[in-house]
Amino acid sequence: MEMAVNSVSPSEFDSSTPPESSEKNLQPFFILHKASSRSSHRRRIHLSPSKSVIKTDDLLLRMEAFQSVWSEIHSASKDVLRDINTSAFNDIYHWVRQSFHAITSYGMPGFGQATRSFPLLTHATSKQLFTGLVLTKNMEFVDDLLTFEELGLCLKSHGCHVANLSSTDFSAKNGIGGCLRSLLRQFLMVSLDAADMSILASWYREQGNYNSPLIVIVDDMERCCPSILSVFILTLSEWVVKIPIILIMGVATTLDAPRNILPSNVLQQLCPCKFVLGSPAERMDAVLEAALLRQCSMFCIGHKVAVFLRNYFLNQDGTVTSFIRALKIACAQHFYMEPLSFMAGALFEEDNQGFQGERNVLLEGMLKYASELSSPDSDTRAEQIDTTLTCRLRELKRLQKCWSSIVLCLYEAGKHKIRLLDIFCEALDPEAYNSVASDNHTGLGKGFGISTPSDPSMRQQCFTMRKGGFICQAIQKVRLLPEASLSQLLKSWENLTVDIYEIHDKVKELQSMVKLEEGRISKEDLTDICILCSNDRRHASWRRLNIESSKRINEKAASLIDCMVRDFLRPIECLPFHEIGCFRNVEKLQLALIGDPRRRVQLDLLEFHKILWCSCCSRSCNIPLPSMPDTSIMYTLAQEHGDLINLPEWFQSFKTIISHISTKGKRKTKQSMLPKKTKYINESEDKSEASIQARFCRAVTELQITGLIRMPTKRRPDCVQRVAFGL
Amino acid sequence: MEMNGGSDEEEFGFSRNYFLAKELGGSGKKSTHKLSDINIVDEQELRAAADNIEPKHEKEIEDLMKSYKSLYPRWVFELRCGFGLLMYGFGSKKALLEDFASSALTEYSVLVINGYLQSINIKQVLIALAEILCDQLKTKRKTSSENLSKVRQSFNSKSMDDLLAFLNGPHVDENDCFICILVHNIDGPGLRDTETQQYLARLASCSHIRVIASIDHVNAPLLWDKKMVHTQFNWSWYHVPTFAAYKVEGMFFPLILAHGNTTQTAKTAAIVLQSLTPNAQSVFKVLAEYQLSHPDEEGMQLNDLYTVCRERFLVSSQVTLNAHLTEFKDHELVKTKRHSDGQDCFYIPLTSEALQKLLLEISQ
Predict the structure, then answer these.
(1) B4 and A321: CB-CB below 8 Å?
(2) The pTM is what?
(3) Which helix (H) or strand (E) holds A547?
(4) What is B58-239's CATH number, 3.20.90, 3.30.70, 3.40.50, 3.30.1490?
């Protein structure tokens, strides 16, 4: 793809527009150009040794790397979000079947009866509408959009007919017709002008599909217009005998919500059932685990970025959706900015597909290319670098995997008490690690071995040194774990450390110890019972012994994790070549993620010389100079006013400042509330007066476009209102 | 949680600034300067002068614009990654964005929406987009073109939902087949309402659409909820102040010194009045005189007005008076207000000085 930036002639940005385009300026919309016919560059990259070919495709390579890495992260996080709800979904489906049976047990009316719009004479219970209330435990409905979509798909896969409605369908403007139309559209797959339930009834009958219910999912009931929702529910309950409709509604607050929103006659029609989804924090941990730790995509984030994302999640946005989005921005920025990042994609694919044929060639080619990038001059050196680079990269990947495994081990240890996000952030901190690394040089803590608690110098280091740190807490938790959960924990460690054989062995060793202990204890229990009757005192001492021995195992497990942390928890930023996959530019991410127009636009106006770098205005500090842009002068002046700006005064001060061109030199333009009647030379006064007034008007208009001032009201025709106070 | 502390501090600064400004406005002696104190030039002259304002810092602005060219490849990259681009910062970004589109987005079709205009028919936009996509698909796979041409004919009669569904369709597995929409001032008057923003958001989330937009208003982000921001628009923000004059964008804003100015409204009122019948003019005079002599009252009650007009033989019945009043109201010469005792009363929305000037002018 041609991405090169052509040099431009200065006239390109010329603001004086040609007549043809000024006509376009007044059209609501127009087509700027149509896609130029291009050679389809959808091809696999066959890297030939000639570098010139590759260079032009550099960005394309990185784009493909981004796409493969991101699609993996995306689908992993999507899967995990679905899995988290699996049990809830199963419960819902079970309930749907039951409700459907209940409805059909009243007996199905014949075709003619069912499609007629007048009510059937049945007893009151048959008008009950089975309603599933799904508590999302989350005020941020964004995170649940996907949940309800997945729920719909899940029910569809079980053969139900499903329609997903949202609060926008229940707007007062569109009325009941709007949501019925949307309903028909989704069930019948055609859009109809008429909104009539009898159409739905005859469709259902014609389908001949009596074995499956119709499910209507409303994802955020609190945001629906209450009156429309009430009418909708009443309508459905009228028809429920003829069409087996089951309603599922998402509730963000508490179970009281329907009672607060709907009138009693509507509530009477509902036959509710409660389901609960996972909390946002749980989901967050699951997503983090799936996206960044479980699968080694080679893309990761640096410590500062992680801390920023954590704070953004906890303090500002609080939605998992925004976290994933932030991750995507980080990923895209990384692949754009880091020239070697395309290798992350290659390494990742290598991992995914195994070492076979084309892939292997691909990686080799990439490595060659990368070494060319780093040393373009000598061929022999390139080859050397090629081989070392290969080793280094594989090593990087291995270390990264180790790191992830240890973080997950820690998470398992502190499960339900300590958030993965917290451990993740702490484990990424290169500063904590560096202080340890320098200690290691002195010879302390070399090698691997289970340290005994009697060796305090070992435990003094590393992340564990941080009193109150999350990692420290997790290790502490291991010490206090009851026996049953300890063996469970060891089992999970065993699974997590499969690839790190040193640790894997130790874990197995510990496991066998636990088993031995268990065996012994159960034997002792038997003997205990025998002894119980004879000697109470002895029994007590036995128990103490038992506790002590299990304590010993806890202590051993704690030392093991302590060791794992010390030896394998090397933050990614401390590894060589981490730049290939690690995104660290937190400022760039923040800028792209959170625009701050309110602050920025004001800063643009007040400190414009930092952007324009002109020589004329930089010397002023907050004192308006005539050479400044008019709008900047006006906004600087506006800072001196209260919430109302008197137009004539503003105009006079503006006039004073811009007329100072001729009497330059003296700094008479001190900030002034009241205009000074300074003598400005009145050469061709009429003309300049008109132009000054025009400039004033233009500046006011520009401030109005930016929304920094509000126009005069009828009540105060001489004043504009300031809107922004402070940055 | 260092971030937290920072924002607290900011918030404090904000409220302090607000109250300081309030105090400044309240305690200081009320500024009594009136707009009429300025010797305002004629509107036409003002407009002519506004068209010929000498630009400042031309060279620096040009350099700034050129410096943004280095961002173009990055923008294209992000568009292809599936983000929308949102440009903000002071200055018109129209030229910048159009230059970006015509130099870096040549392989994609680009449709421009001028959001600064007063009214924009979003459905027409959707139809145009659907037609472009249809053409593109046709060139992509010539075999199934018959099928598509059938679709095309009916775009005009399709509903918004259908059009959006078409644009969101998985027509080709190729990731790179999309149309770029360039929205100047997505916060502009023609697009500002909730419904249009919802449609734009749904449009932005379509698989075959990417949006590049600019905002100028500092509160523009308030237009969008989290669903729109995170799942639909998927903005990647860019701060690109240009300091270019808002020439086109400001076209429809009234000049503050020309609008609402007493001489101007009195003049236009006079022109309207002179085109009416002498009787109508006299009815207006009755109302004006009453308003001048009772400056503190809310207006003249209909019964009083009718009585006076009848006495002076200006109207013969309530019906004729109502006809005159409707005429006045249509031209915004007269407005109604609900009196405290429940009756409608009429008043002229002009200051006393302006009213006097007006009376002088029509009696000449």
Answers:
(1) no
(2) 0.79
(3) helix A536-568
(4) 3.40.50
